[in-house]
Amino acid sequence: MFTPFIIRSRSRGIIPSDVSGLLVWNRGDTGLKTGGARQFTAANSESLSIADDAVLDLSTGDVLLGVFVMRDSTGQQTIAAKWEDDENYWVWELTATGELHFIAVVGAVTIIEVNGLATTTTLAQYYHCALALDRDSTANTKFYIDGVADVTGTPTVAATDIDNAGAFRLGALKA
Question: Greater confidence, 150 or 7?
């Protein structure tokens, strides 16, 4: 289960002006709501998709993404993504072995990549996961799991624009 909350960029507000607080989608609802939770199940095939909108682009600035995650199965699971095509996308995911991973690709070139080390493999346990992406500093770019810094290797960062025309998705990358 993935319960998204605030998604912000220092250079540009990512929250639509008519939505505040927790961004969630409850079963049966047709839009974003505050409160409650949305469970993405069915073998990583469910998602919330919002058509491309400039307010959802990560642009060139520093970014903080955050979610609460409770896994009910193991394996690779997409948390959030904006996918235009195989050469232009960004994806935040849990790997098959439970580590956090973020990658942004523009024109088939990897612009940003961050790998976590700690695992979120305990089922039915909530984890607070965040990505602090400092576009000018590999030292300040890292994941946090329950408030503890988590990164392995040296992240790849750049101030290159990572906007694309794909839909913003929470949950499964492709329906």
Answer: 150
